[in-house]
Design a protein that fits this description.
InterPro entries: AB_hydrolase_3, AB_hydrolase_fold, GDXG_lipolytic_enzyme. By secondary structure, the protein is α/β, with parallel strands linked by helices. The chain has 12 helices and 8 strands. The longest helix has 17 residues.
């Protein structure tokens, strides 16, 4: 499959997963053209077309893989579809090659197409702004919103190496719709071109930029939270730590979805889910090798969150997946936060894998997880 095909597929997947087509917002700032292609108009003189078939139940085509006992049928269907796209093992590739591989978002798009799952209407407008050279943010504003709104700064996953704002567009749009808040999704610089702690410093710079500039996009600078998935969960927690240590306003809440929270790849979930998909132990070793300058970085409190000083952190929601090498990281971090006196809510979702959170279009557990995250954010952010 060519790079062009992958690029268009990834854009389409972002819109489909989010349950909306991408929209643009007319502002004086740099505005993204997030339009999607509309269906061709049918000639009224032509034969009346038959009504399209409705959605069909999503079911896997084969037995559950050996590593995934108890996997939910919809989740298994996503994993099967991802395999059918012909991607190569990430850990065998260069970073540049890995960034061109099919993603779970691509798999969900294909699954939606083959099962006649329609796109719901657009619920958010987007625009881009530059925080500093090399660091861009995409601002999602609920359609028709009026007045000043809470702001959530979002950090995408990808092991600090792969993926981008489009890959995780679904998660953001789902949360925008469920919270009614403005979301600011951060495109931090990635490894190996930019080693640790670049992504962490970029993420904190973006957070500070939001605090200073929220009013310019109708956001409330006193009502800010952070959310992150995977490596982004690590970044979100690190931003809270840096804010605490540098005496910058703390986020009102942090939602960490299957965060990377440690450098130990011999935890129970790393051992149990060593060969899981779409994330496995060899991939995590590859991510660490690409981002970290050496083993000493792995012991940094911003990588090994479970060994950091967690006192004074904001109230936290942690979501994990049972079929994920990072499950133990999330559970251990939740326990350490509670021990440090931080109000913490932890929930593990059974039968699903890493990356499930953005799959609400096809995986029921993703809807449940997004509802949980949105509920905690709404409780924390006073309108």
């Amino acid at each position: 499959m060519t790079t062009l095909i992958h690029t268009s597929l990834r854009w389409g997947a972002a819109a489909l997963l989010a349950g909306s087509t991408l929209a643009s917002c007319n502002t004086a700032q740099t505005t993204e053209s997030d339009a999607t292609t509309t269906a061709a108009t049918t000639d009224s003189a032509a034969t009346t077309p038959t009504a399209p078939a409705g959605p069909t139940p999503i079911r896997p085509t084969g037995p559950a893989p050996a590593w995934a006992t108890g996997i939910k049928p919809e989740m298994q269907a996503v994993i099967e579809t991802l395999a059918s796209l012909g991607g190569k093992p990430i850990e065998t590739l260069s970073a540049q090659e890995a960034r061109q591989q099919p993603t779970p978002a691509d798999a969900v798009m294909k699954l939606m197409q083959t099962n006649n799952i329609p796109m719901p209407p657009v619920t958010a407008d987007t625009m881009s702004r530059m925080v500093m050279p090399g660091v861009k943010v995409r601002i999602y504003t609920p359609k028709g919103a009026t007045g000043t709104l809470p702001v959530v700064v979002y950090y995408h996953g990808g092991g600090w190496v792969i993926a981008n704002l489009d890959t995780y567009d679904a998660s953001v749009r789902g949360l925008v719709e469920k919270t009614g808040a403005i979301f600011v999704s951060v495109a931090y610089r990635q490894a190996p071109e930019h080693k640790y702690p670049t992504a962490h410093n970029d993420s904190f710079a973006a957070y500070q930029w939001v605090l200073k500039n929220a009013a310019s996009f109708k956001g409330d600078p006193q009502n800010v939270a952070v959310v992150g998935e995977s490596a982004g969960g690590n970044l979100a927690a690190s931003v809270s730590m840096m804010a605490r240590d540098k005496k910058v306003m703390l986020p009102k809440h942090q939602v960490l979805v299957y965060p990377i929270a440690g450098y130990d790849m011999n935890t129970p979930s790393y051992q149990q889910n060593a060969q899981a998909k779409p994330l496995n132990k060899p991939m995590m070793a590859w991510f660490f090798e690409k981002y970290l300058r050496g083993a000493a970085d792995g012991k940094s409190p911003m990588i090994s969150l479970v060994n950091a000083n967690l006192k004074g952190m904001p109230a936290t929601t942690i979501i994990t997946a049972s079929l994920d090498p990072l499950m133990s990281d999330g559970k251990m971090l939740a326990d350490k936060l509670k021990a440090a006196g931080v109000a913490t809510k932890y929930e593990n979702f059974e039968g699903v894998t890493h990356e499930f959170f953005g799959m609400a279009a096809v995986v029921p557990q993703a809807t449940q997880a997004q509802d949980l995250a949105a509920g905690e954010l709404k409780n924390a952010l006073v309108k």
